[in-house]
Write a structure and sequence with these properties.
The protein is globular and about 75 Å long. The chain has a 24-stranded antiparallel beta barrel. Strands 1, 3, 6, 7, 8, 9, 12, 13 and 14 form a nine-stranded mixed β-sheet that branches. Helix content is 4%, strand content 57%. It is built from three helices and 39 strands. The protein is mostly beta strands and 681 residues long.
Length: 681
């Protein structure tokens, strides 16, 4: 009897301990600071034994069913770095406090809210691969105050910005992180870090909200007017194509509908200049337009399958996404204007994805079409985590292409295995593509091949002496012809990175490629050494020297060369920041043919002047002097002045210019001034 009683007491104690690990966020209409809603146990995520944080940091949280409130107090030290003012979602490179909310425990993502000393607004969605998508925007706000001894934060986060499943009580997770810029140390509740893979989300702190949350408002309407002056044609463009509107509706906490007519991206900076001139494949650029990146992760596709940068001049777009406890679904329809006066193309995407904690299946249909053309793809992509951190997955796609002269179909298959836990990753993949597979709304570099690749990386933390940590990464792949089994391409890449004294990085990288081109095999390689230094907030440097051997396809031979890269960035005071990168590529022995350039330079320069977080001037310069035929120089400038006088008004004044030097004179691609005014209703 006594033994049974002891077992019952032990089980009850264990249950009580487990219950105590789940933090209940109290409901209150006034500021609430007490022991029950206070978080103080910050731990060093860089140390193997999770040492406690020596500074006094306290965080209090409560809610009123519409908003989540956060108060924080951080003890200051001599290393405290407030950095600079920036416009929204521009990284200030400062100390910060970050709150991550995980409202969907099966899909492995979190909402990230950053709080900076100067009140900068920066929010993002952290995906299951631990990457940050800063294009998600919340309507959160906070007040930051710095005294002699403490930095204090008072924040207000609306529940209406979150995807919330089910009914109360809500069982969520959260991670609170305090970061020191000058020491590059992170301290977190609980002690988790981004090298843990999905365990980063699983081991987050449990929290519960027992009351039903409500929406104060579930829609917004944002009309805008764009006035543009074309300095080449000497005309003012102010017609129906310069009037646009964004409409967003949230039928419930887990769904979002958005319609955009004449979406405008005039204030989006131009892409950086990169070296593409002797590349095997056409370059791809990251999507930076808010309509396309917002909630794109719900569709479960990557940009190789659906490359939205093909949609260069959208006329209108409709998007619906929904995340339920057992499934995700999404619909995207966009009409693109034609560059040549035709009807333009339609892009359509529909996905449905049943999910659970350990498996998911993504069904997708997507196409690109116009009056005389159809390219349709159906995709089935299951993934199963059969053992924790061990996942097998596949992606099966079938395509149909039909136009006035062609009608065919093809297939694409990918399957793989991945393991990721702690500081180690291993992944293997096999893929095959038929000759007639077509994916014109995505990216295809070649077809009629099969291949495999293997990648692995590992990180080591020492925290002893001058060496802080180091890591290695390995990538091996092959592509072979479907019919002859002949090798098309083999890639071997290996790199080692070491971090010293918390602010010095040394990285060595070696890449070897054996490529089949026309009738012969060619061996290419690159060997690079990178040195990065961050000694002062006003001067961060990155220097890279690379020895190259590339295939010059026009000559059908390989040539050796050098690449020298220098990057500079920093903050000058609280109002000015800059970023400059310059690269010189030189092939000394390359024959002087008219269509080849043996020596050329690339330059990217961006500066930002921020009088406050609501008034920012951004400008930049893009330049390269790669010579081909009669072209010798590309020159581009931009200037954006952004002003947000109230929470609802946005005003942008800007200038964009792009030109190519042809023979001895410059030919302007475009040159215009614009004024864009929008109001959020």
């Amino acid at each position: 009897m006594a033994k049974n009683f002891l077992i019952i007491i032990t089980l009850f104690s264990c249950f009580s301990f487990i219950q105590s690990l789940e933090q209940i966020i109290p409901n209150s209409t006034i500021q609430l600071r007490n022991h029950e809603n206070c978080f103080t146990d910050f731990r060093d995520v860089n140390s193997s034994d999770c040492l406690p944080y020596e500074r006094d940091v306290k965080v209090w949280m409560w809610h009123d069913q519409q908003y989540l409130y956060l108060d924080a107090r951080v003890e200051l030290t001599d290393a405290f770095n407030p950095s600079v003012f920036t416009s929204r979602d521009q990284w200030p490179n400062a100390d910060y406090l970050r709150l991550q909310l995980i409202t969907d425990l099966k899909n492995y993502y979190s909402y990230c809210y950053y709080f900076f000393p100067l009140g900068n607004l920066y929010d993002a969605v952290r995906s299951s691969d631990l990457s940050l998508d800063k294009n998600w925007n919340s309507t959160y706000n906070y007040r930051s105050q710095i005294s002699e001894d403490f930095w204090e934060i008072s924040a207000k986060i609306p529940f209406s910005d979150l995807r919330i499943n089910g009914v109360a009580p809500y069982h969520w997770k959260m991670i609170i992180t305090c970061y020191e810029k000058n020491t590059a140390n992170s301290y977190s509740i609980p002690c988790v870090n981004s090298s843990m893979g999905k365990n980063y989300f699983r081991e987050a702190l449990d929290l519960t909200i027992t009351e039903t949350v409500t929406q104060s408002r579930n829609f917004y309407l944002r009309p805008y007017l764009l006035g543009m002056y074309d300095n080449i044609e000497r005309e003012l463009q102010l017609d129906q194509d310069n009037l646009g509107i964004d409409f967003s509706l949230k039928p419930d906490y887990s769904s979002n509908f958005k319609f955009s007519y004449n979406p405008d991206f005039s204030d989006v900076p131009p892409d950086d200049e990169i070296d593409i001139y002797y590349s095997r494949y056409a370059p791809t650029y990251p999507e930076n337009r808010y309509f396309f990146v917002e909630d794109f992760n719900v569709f479960g596709l990557d940009y190789d399958s659906f490359y939205t940068r093909h949609i260069s001049n959208p006329h209108y777009g409709v998007k619906f996404t929904s995340s339920k406890p057992t499934y995700n679904c999404g619909i995207l329809m966009v009409k693109d204007r034609s560059d040549k006066g035709g009807s333009g193309d339609y892009y359509n995407l529909i996905t449905y994805r049943p999910v659970s904690e350990y498996y998911r299946m993504n069904f997708a249909f997507f196409n690109r079409m116009n009056k005389h053309y159809h390219n349709d793809i159906i995709s089935f992509a299951p993934a199963f985590e059969f053992i924790k951190n061990n996942t097998i997955w596949a992606d099966l796609q079938h395509s149909w292409l039909k136009n006035d002269s062609v009608s065919n179909n093809g297939f694409f298959v990918q399957t793989g295995y991945s393991y990721r836990a702690a500081d180690f990753c291993l992944a293997a993949q096999f893929e095959q593509m038929s000759k007639n597979f077509a994916r014109d709304m995505g990216n295809i570099y070649e077809d009629d091949y099969y291949g495999w690749h293997l990648e692995s990386w590992q990180k080591y933390k020492t925290n002893k002496g001058i060496l802080r940590d180091w890591s290695w990464e390995l990538w091996v792949s092959e592509e072979l012809d479907n019919r002859s089994n002949a090798l098309l391409e083999r890639i071997f890449q290996f790199s080692i990175e070491q971090n010293f004294l918390k602010n010095i990085t040394v990285k060595a990288d070696f890449k070897y490629v054996r490529e089949f081109y026309k009738t012969s095999y060619y061996n290419k390689y690159s060997q690079s050494l990178l040195l990065g230094c961050e000694f002062f907030c006003w001067l961060n440097t990155e220097m890279r020297v690379t020895r190259l051997r590339n295939l010059i396809r026009q000559e059908q031979k390989t040539e050796s060369g050098w690449s020298h890269y220098l990057g500079l960035s920093g903050n000058l005071g609280q109002h000015f920041s800059y970023s400059i990168s310059a690269e010189n590529i030189d092939y000394p022995e390359l024959d002087q043919l008219p269509q080849l350039d043996p020596d050329y330079q690339l330059l990217n320069c961006d500066v930002s002047v921020s009088l406050s977080n609501n008034f920012t001037i951004n400008g930049g310069w893009r330049y390269d002097n790669y010579e081909y035929y009669d072209y010798s120089v590309y020159d581009g400038y931009y200037l954006n002045i952004g002003c947000k006088p109230t929470l609802y008004w946005d005003i942008y004044l800007g200038f964009k210019y792009s030109a190519n030097q042809i023979k001895d004179s410059f030919s302007r691609n475009y040159e215009y001034f614009y004024l864009k005014v929008s109001y959020k209703i």
